[in-house]
Amino acid sequence: MSGGVVLAEVWWEQLLHGILSWEFLEFVVVFVSIFGFVMTSAVILILAERKVMAWMQDRYGPLHTGPWGLLQTVADVGKLLLKEDIHAGKIDKAIFILAPSVFLAPVIASFAVLPFSPYISLPGAPLATGIVYLIAMSSLDVVGVVMAGWGSNNKYALIGGLRSAAQMISYELPLVLSLVSIVMLTSILSDNGLGTIAIKDIMNFQMAQSWPGKGNPVWDFIFEGFTPWAWFILVQPLLVLIYYTCGLAETNRSPFDLPEAESELVAGYLTEYSGMRWALFYLGEYGNMTIVSAITAMLFLGGWSGPGVAFLTAPGMAIGWQVLGNLLALVYFILKIYLLCGVFIWVRTTLPRLRADQLMQFAWLILIPTTLVNIVLTGALYLVLNALGVSNVVFLVVLGVVNWLMLFGFFWVVSRATTASTRRAVAPAIRARQRLATLAPPSAAPRLPEPERAGVTGAGAGTGR
Amino acid sequence: MATNQGVNRPPLEGVAPGELRSEEMILNMGPQHPSTHGVLRLVLTLEGETVVDCTPVIGYLHRGIEKILENRTVMAGIRYMDNADYLSPMLNETAYVGAVEQLMGIEPPRRAQYIRLITNELQRIASHLVAIGTYLLDLGAFTPILWTFRDREGILSLFEALGGSRFNVNYMRVGGVLHDFPKGWLQQCEAWCNQFEKNLQELETLITGNEIFEARTQGVGYVDPQQAIAYGLTGPMLRASGVNWDLRVNRPYMAYREIKVNPQVRQEGDCYARYRVRMQEMAESLRLVRVAMDQLPGGPISTRTPIALRPPRGETYFAIESSKGELGIYFISDGSEYPWRAKIRGPSFVNLQILPELLRGHKMSDVVAILGSLDIVLGEVDR
């Protein structure tokens, strides 16, 4: 009879308890700050991009809003928020309005599993299937882009949206395949022979257990948890490159920015958008950049590891040191992310854009075979070396050497293949023209003048001067 | 206006006729579009991303320059020539005053001819800088345009010191030029040349060896020599197809009779060759500027010609090698102060005619790659 009341009391007290608890407060603080990080990171990145590009291009960049133009993006965001919401008459309204949210939501969701420091992370960070979750989220972006392209009722937007769909789906494959070898490595390195796809565990595999001067507090402070020689970038440099390249394509950044290729498609799927809806796309794009950089940092560059982090956050240290260690980890992690984002910007200032068919060729004919070969090679090498009875360290060294050699081979192949494949790709155009010439009756074909009229000697009788 | 009837379309690769029904899409590219270099409108018929047909629609920038010229005295008309090809006003003015001089039988003093050569070659560099910068921007590379505009800025400053105006210089006069070089101008120009030599090398390093750039331009937009001659192409378009034809060499005018030009020719005939020809021409123009400054003769800068100029009755055609090709003026005078007719043979207009032929069968991304390599200026196409 009174069970319901008792239950209600418990529920009420539980809720009160839950809300006033330390864990809940911590969750709120972390959630707000990580959400804030996604939002502000885009603003910071846009400003950084404009400033860095300006520096590379011999100009000043934003200069007048705030000191050194630092408030330029803030002013831009203010402008975008206040802008009138315009859309064309014959759009598919529901899809058009929903698309920016569909694009942005997976980006924000991706941040749920990123560990920012040993302590600071959302509750999703211990997820055992972290990498799969991240990849799933990044694949969802394409839905928003296609919706935007379709809903805009604009030919440029449609072409941009479809290009983007093809591009994102194609580059998803080498992106995933390039991470497979990392998972294989973890299974080789782990004691029980089981690999892991949890992000934090992969980061732990990059922290060697021994370092020079172990036992000396100074060396311990620096090297505990910070062992750059164990980072996977040294073992699998080719995969870093491929993953990063696919990241460029996934985030529609130059040289893969075909979906919004300004010179051809005006603004691609963004053509009809304005104001805050447009800004949401930008937010998502720069958030994506942050995600790709963060994954690269975590899987290949040791994540938040840096001098002092593991030492200060070791169990048994005082709370103050723990806080300092976590802040240090945060600084290292964000520094690595922004350095990698800097490479994004650097690439953008340097390279022209690929053509759509070359883009596809690059993914299917070069990247995917390379990653597949790499997977087979990693497994075969391990089997051979394991049969010979060598230790894991020797295996890693051999794998690293082989992979570095493959990296230079890859450069060579890419530089040859891009131009070679183009010559073939052009052939249809020329073939079509030749066929046209044969199809047309000879009388209709334009009479070409004799080549002697070229006037190479300059003695041609000309204009009656 | 833009019909596609009566155009032979190449059948699609790998699809037998009647096997698969698909619709062509007609896409209006321009007149407001980031990479049509002004207000050109291209009516593209697309089969997927493949261009089946293209019809350029021009006339959006028509200002009636030729008609304006008929309503201005000869001297007053020089200023309107600036606006025809607004990226190379010095060359336009030279063509116009050259035609009048030819009709009147005036030979400008040697110093004036050398000054014209220096300004013309500087203008050619400026025009090619814009062409290459915008071309790379069309291909998605953001940096080159800012570097090239930085260098072009130096040329415009030199022109400002010379004629008082950066863009519409209004510097040439029938029988000579407006002013002599101001004090220190030659030193400034020399300093700019030295700086530009380095910057040109830097630009080469950034663009020329780039695999993506080569992949985008090599083999794209191929023009064979016969086709180029049949379409009346001139300038870098023609020389990139392997035809050695440069009016500065083949029909030398003014100071080009004394200073020899090495024409830059390439055999490939594709967009890459056109880019390379422009790059080489910039280096060649730089050399010419230096040679002309070294050999600069003294003397007057202008013959005495009245402001109210009355060219004799008659007609003439005078052509110079502009940055884009043969820029000719067909000048008819009825003996009055006003030209009876001044027809501008704009190289951009002629070079544009080959565009539909080049685009057929290429991908949509190649549209901007080919259009950019033509280096048209809509001010000269529409006049």
Task: Provide a descriptive summary of the structure in words.
The complex is a heterodimer of chains A (465) and B (383). Chain A has 465 residues and is mainly alpha-helical. Chain A contains 16 helices and no strands. Chain A has one domain. In chain A, helix 2 crosses helix 12, helix 2 packs parallel to helix 14 and helix 3 packs across helix 12. The C terminus of chain A is likely disordered. Helices cover 46% and strands 12% of the residues of chain B. Chain B has a three-stranded antiparallel sheet with strand order 1-2-3. Chain B has a three-stranded antiparallel sheet with strand order 6-7-8. A two-stranded antiparallel sheet of chain B has the order 4-5. In chain B, helix 11 packs parallel to helix 14. The radius of gyration of chain B is 22 Å and the shape is globular. The chains are: A mainly alpha (465), B alpha+beta (383). The interface between A and B is large, with 60 and 59 residues. Chain B: Keywords: Cell membrane, Membrane, NAD, Quinone, Translocase, Transport, Ubiquinone. Chain B: This is NADH-quinone oxidoreductase subunit D. Chain B: Its EC number is 7.1.1.-.
Count of individual domains of chain B: 1
Sheet bearing the most strands of chain A, described? none
The helicity of chain B comes to 40-55%
The best one-word shape of chain A is globular
Name of the CATH first level of chain B: Mainly Alpha
Give the helix tally of chain A. Answer: 16
Can you say what the CATH homologous superfamily of chain B is? Cytochrome-c3 Hydrogenase, chain B
- Structural class, from secondary structure content of chain B? alpha+beta
> Spans of chain A with pLDDT under 50 lasting ≥5 residues?
441-465
Q: What's the pLDDT, averaged over the residues of chain B?
A: 85
The largest sheet of chain B has its strands arranged as: 1-2-3
CATH architectural type of chain B: Orthogonal Bundle
User: Which radius of gyration of chain B do the C-alpha atoms yield?
Assistant: 22 Å
Strand segment count of chain A? 0
Counting helices, strands and paired strands, the structural category of chain A is mainly alpha
Query: What is the end-to-end distance of chain B?
Result: 20 Å
- Number of helices, where a helix is a run of at least 4 consecutive DSSP H or I residues of chain B: 15
Question: Any idea what the shape of chain B is?
Answer: globular
Hey, roughly how much beta strand do the residues of chain A contain? under 5%
What proportion strand of chain B? 5-15%
